């Protein structure tokens, strides 16, 4: 007995932001000094390291719960179920609803409660709550839903990952170019056949790594120091990811009972193309086998890093046949993996 995905959906905002958008930004270092390179050089370096050419931003009238609602609607339609039959709505995010032009995060009531309201679900015993787990939040929500289903507490769970990171970036920090907005969702139900979640693993590294991603003041010393923005120590995160994610992926795969040669796809959090490639390379090195072609789909080039939304959005695109080079068929074994603020890591092995 396990749980399986019966529907997926995503919402990719229509506003495309190319690297030219940042051409007039005044980028600074942590001390507030202007960076020596011109913005074209900075953007070129960003593309070289992360692969990002474009990203998507929500429109001015949308907030995170709106994006999550649209992804949830698509997943419910894809699953062809009555939303009143949902037992749980689990919403993974990090910053809540941040309205355009403001700096305040709004999380009361929960974002999951807002989506349940937008879905017009009358069932009071459909439990709606949020998960704050950094970028691995959607996977963690899936793991929690899986536990509810296996224990008999729930029969159907909706897990959403959505974020509007464009609302919490410091425009004077070049790292702001990485972030994007988006939403993805999946519905899980009880499975007694061969498909479903086969293993999972989660970890939180907090002793030394807690502040690799954090909320901090603008790099512009003239800005209000009490207003905080998303900040990261990119080098530390890169080193942490390479040191910890491949081993977690291996442990998860080994516990699933499948071999490295049975793995058909790796759907990894779209954080940084070079970092993701390095993680997957090191993962295969642990088995002393070469990395297969087309094992890791990437859409970060056009969609940027939308945190908790990257994995469910990408999964939906593949299952909807929107990526010609990548398919998932019945019987395929897929490894999901993520790393992010906390520092948290997690993974799932899933058979379709």
Automatic annotation (TrEMBL):
Q: Which SUPFAM superfamilies match?
A: Thiolase-like (SSF53901)
InterPro entries noted in UniProt:
ACP_syn_III_C, ACP_syn_III_N, Thiolase-like
The GO biological-process annotations, alphabetized, read as:
fatty acid biosynthetic process; secondary metabolite biosynthetic process
Keywords, sorted A to Z:
Acyltransferase, Transferase
Q: Name one Pfam family in it.
A: ACP_syn_III_C
- Write out the GO MF terms: 3-oxoacyl-[acyl-carrier-protein] synthase activity
Record-annotated Beta-ketoacyl-[acyl-carrier-protein] synthase III C-terminal domain positions: 253-351
Q: Does the keyword Transferase feature in the UniProt annotation?
A: yes
What domain of life is recorded for the organism? Bacteria
Any idea where the Beta-ketoacyl-[acyl-carrier-protein] synthase III N-terminal domain is?
A: 129-199
PANTHER family from the xrefs?
A: 3-OXOACYL-[ACYL-CARRIER-PROTEIN] SYNTHASE 3, BETA-KETOACYL-[ACYL-CARRIER-PROTEIN] SYNTHASE III
Q: What is this protein called?
A: 3-oxoacyl-ACP synthase
What is the originating organism of this protein? Avrilella dinanensis
The record lists the lineage as: Bacteria, Pseudomonadati, Bacteroidota, Flavobacteriia, Flavobacteriales
């Amino acid at each position: 007995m396990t749980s399986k995905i019966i529907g997926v959906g995503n919402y990719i905002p229509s506003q495309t932001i190319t690297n030219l958008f940042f051409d007039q930004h005044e980028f600074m270092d942590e001390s507030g000094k202007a960076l020596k390179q011109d913005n074209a050089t900075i953007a070129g370096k960003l593309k070289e390291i992360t692969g990002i050419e474009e990203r998507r931003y929500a429109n001015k009238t949308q907030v995170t719960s709106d994006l999550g609602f649209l992804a949830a609607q698509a997943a419910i339609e894809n699953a062809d179920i009555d939303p009143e039959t949902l037992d749980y709505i689990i919403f993974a995010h990090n910053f809540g609803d941040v309205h355009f032009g403001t700096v305040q995060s709004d999380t009361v009531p929960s974002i999951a409660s807002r989506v349940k309201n937008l879905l017009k679900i009358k069932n009071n015993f459909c439990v709606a709550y949020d998960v704050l787990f950094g970028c691995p939040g959607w996977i963690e929500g899936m793991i929690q839903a899986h536990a509810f289903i296996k224990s008999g507490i729930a029969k159907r769970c909706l897990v959403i990952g959505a974020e509007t990171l464009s609302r919490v970036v410091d425009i004077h920090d070049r790292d702001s170019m990485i972030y994007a907005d988006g939403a993805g969702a999946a519905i899980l139900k009880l499975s007694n056949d061969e498909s479903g979640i086969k293993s999972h693993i989660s970890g939180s590294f907090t002793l030394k790594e807690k502040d690799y991603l954090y909320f901090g003041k603008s790099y512009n010393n003239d800005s209000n120091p009490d207003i905080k923005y998303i900040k990261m120590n990119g080098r530390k995160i890169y080193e942490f990811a390479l040191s910890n994610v491949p081993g977690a992926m291996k442990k998860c795969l080994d516990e699933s009972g499948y071999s490295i040669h049975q793995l058909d796809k790796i759907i990894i959090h779209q954080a940084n193309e070079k970092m993701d490639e390095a993680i997957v390379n090191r993962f295969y090195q642990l088995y002393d086998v070469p990395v297969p072609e087309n094992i890791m789909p990437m859409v970060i080039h056009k969609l940027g890093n939308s945190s908790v939304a990257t994995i469910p959005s990408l999964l939906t695109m593949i299952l909807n046949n929107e990526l010609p080079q990548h398919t998932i068929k019945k019987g395929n074994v897929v490894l999901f993996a993520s790393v992010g603020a906390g520092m948290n890591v997690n993974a799932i092995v899933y058979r379709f």
